[in-house]
Amino acid sequence: EESAAQNFIRAIISEDLEKGRHTKVVTRFPPEPNGYLHIGHAKAICTNFGLAREFGGVCHLRMDDTNPTTEDVEYVENIQRDVRWLGFDWGDKLFYASDYFERLYAFAVELIKKGKAYVDSLNEAEIREYRGTVNEPGKPSPYRDRSIEENLDLFERMRKGEFAEGAHVVRMKGDLASPNMKMRDWPMYRIKRAHHYRTGDTWCIYPLYDFAHSLSDAIEGITHSICTLEFDNNRALYDWFVENVDVPARPRQYEFARLNLTYTVMSKRKLLELVKGNLVRGWDDPRMPTLAGMRRRGITPDSLRAFCEEIGVAKTNSTVEVEKFESCIRADLDRRAGRVMAVLRPIKLVLENYPEGKVEEFEAPLFPDEPGKGGSRKIPFSREVYIERDDFTLDPPDKWFRLAPGREVRLRYAYIVTCKDVVRDPATGEVTEIRCTYDPETREGAAQAGKKVKGTLHWVSAAHALRAEVRLYDRLFRDERPDLVEEGQDWKAGLNPDSLVTIQGAAVEPSLAAAEGGQHFQFERQGFFFVDPIDAKPGAPVFNRTVSLKDSWAK
Ligand code: ATP
Ligand code: MG
Ligand code: MG
User: Fold this and answer.
1) Homologous superfamily of domain range 338-464
2) pLDDT (0 to 100) of residue 2
3) Please, are residues 215 and 66 in contact by the beta-carbon 8 Å criterion?
4) Could you tell me if the CB of 502 is within 6 A of ligand 1?
5) What transmembrane ranges does the database entry give (predicted)?
6) What are phi and psi of 156, to 5 degrees?
7) Could you tell me the residue ranges of all domains in the chain?
8) How far is the C-alpha of 108 from the C-alpha of 119, rounded, in Å?
9) How far apart are CA 384 and CA 269, in angstroms?
10) Which CATH class is domain 2-260?
């Protein structure tokens, strides 16, 4: 079922090539530079660039920058960086819709001259009212039958800046009785007195989406224009523009389901609101569904591509469970992340029968389950080690295989230890230190090396521990479907207050002093961690939790 869905655009392209309708496939990815790219865009990038690659064609990267008020060069630069990071290359095919403003203007003049477009002087509310409803045909605007000369004159004067915003719009002349509202004289141009980040103040009229998008596709010779399902109704309008304007190419639009993920939002407007409201630390906050955030969290482009491939290209909208994405991330990091020991919330464990001042070193492989892969490092061991506070309890429940008074556990790569006593804070009663003995015969190569105990704990020698900051990232929302919160309701109410927990004094093994920004590790028993590429300093790493080892949210 999935492979059929995955192939519907592939099948169309194959047939077009076989039947000679096209000799070369040209697709495009057309982001509006009004925000950072998110995982939904990754889906569109993988689809468009992936299909071009598969069929030996090309994919254009086009900045769909026809709306001056929201666009910025910062976004243009980050979009390019993100597409490259995902592993795709547009070669010399980088385009800007704003470069077509002059040609688009000429196309509008052409439509006016053909009697297929007109300048309307109704205001927005009137236009909406005249358009009618699905059950009731629209009424013609009193300006619909202006002469071609008058339309040309007004359009030129709109361009010259003679009118206020909203005074006039240019509309295509469609069918006021069409069941498709988009075909009821949809607007093509509006007056907007705004500075454009590329064209400056050259223009005070700007083309609207359907007109600009379809004709930009035609200008570039796009063969298959792939967009998301909401644009289903726009297809007739898309076709109308490319049929009624004299353009050399005849692109066609195909729609596929947009990607939605649980526990996050993907609307750029909402993501911008989170950034502006300081609810996250920026577009690249590791909790964001943006590619910049994912990169910083330690999610690799390989796992994003694998995820996009796995979910396929569907024809009906659905929301993918984030667990599916997380399992792609784990599968990828499992291959690349060396295993190390880090104690996030340390408590001291003292070995009463271990000589003071003695230090041993244990050789530990980075990939214990794959001999020969990744090498090993030496881990110092001494009389005092840190273990995880959570790995000790005074009052063990059933099936507790970790440490408790009188219990035995193995310290990974080292010895079996037995808990003899605890030290408590006299004021609070809180356990501040665990007192144990160790059995020297249980180290590797010794007589009791093979002795079985139920629990194995990670640890770090106290004297050798490197202190590090660890950032435990979790889902941005507690609410499974924050995207479904109705307009006017507070979608931010579902934010997860514990989406970031920062630990300052984690004790990590000393080999991590050499960790560099951008490296992946598995902290044994904890999860996959990534050295923050921005905040980590030499000798003072900052670790971002990319994902826990298994789905701790599982029901
Ligand atoms: P928003 O509605 O949040 O502003 P957008 O879809 O308008 O997002 P664009 O920059 O215009 O954002 O999107 C560029 C391309 O990425 C479009 O072709 C769009 O169809 C595609 N795209 C955007 N979001 C998704 C998604 N969630 N799943 C798949 N494709 C997407
Ligand atoms: Mg948009
Ligand atoms: Mg858009």
Assistant:
1) Ribosomal Protein L25; Chain P (2.40.240.10)
2) 43
3) no
4) no
5) none
6) -65, -40
7) 2-260, 338-464
8) 11
9) 52
10) alpha beta
